[in-house]
Amino acid sequence: MTDFVLPPPPVPSVAVHDSRQRFAVRRIFCVGRNYAAHAREMGNDEREPPFFFTKPADALVDSGSTIPYAALTQNLHHEIELVVAIGKGGVLISRDAALDHVWGYGVGIDLTRRDLQDVAKKMGRPWDWAKAFDQSAPCGPLVPAQASGHPQKGRIRLAVNGEVRQQGDLADMIWPVPDIVAICSEAVELQPGDLIFTGTPSGVGPVAVGDRLSGEVEGVGTVELEIGPPR
């Protein structure tokens, strides 16, 4: 048995729909600007090839949680996303084989400190402090692909206090799931337990203390979150 100087941290994980088991998470990859309307609202060209950023696995938050308003920001934004859970690893995965590597799907929210991201963009700095902070990756229960199928279309939406803020369709993704998996595997060797947040439709905007967020992807599931006071 290996002795550690400090106790190993808990294994990050996501709930599984209708199961007591949980899905252990290794890494979180996120796709930027994968819906044309969102790319345009952020002032970018939707024809750009996909790019990725990451969040730490321990940024995950279970659906139904209350989290503190994030530190260092006055402009915390919601971004609703389809989440892909990888069940079989691989490198240089072909688009035709990509879905064979998908274990299941979920609904996530990519919380973003937009003011910090704006500064990072202007100064040519990494996005880490804007994207990869504590409790920045709420995620609803995963649904195995054998139950949900591989969704190619369907409503994706997010409401704040019951008011719909974001609404689109998975068919609007510039780069669908097989492309995302294949392109990501060109840069890294995907492993079982990796999650991929696949991008957000237009309508991103700020949240405030006391706001209740509810998101859904048709045929996949939901995610719910409340924003509490800052620490």
From TrEMBL:
Pfam families: FAA_hydrolase
InterPro entries in alphabetical order: Fumarylacetoacetase-like_C, Fumarylacetoacetase_C_sf
Protein name: Fumarylpyruvate hydrolase
Keywords: Hydrolase, Metal-binding
Organism: Aquamicrobium terrae
A molecular function GO annotation: fumarylpyruvate hydrolase activity
Fumarylacetoacetase-like C-terminal domain residues: 28-224
SUPFAM superfamilies: FAH
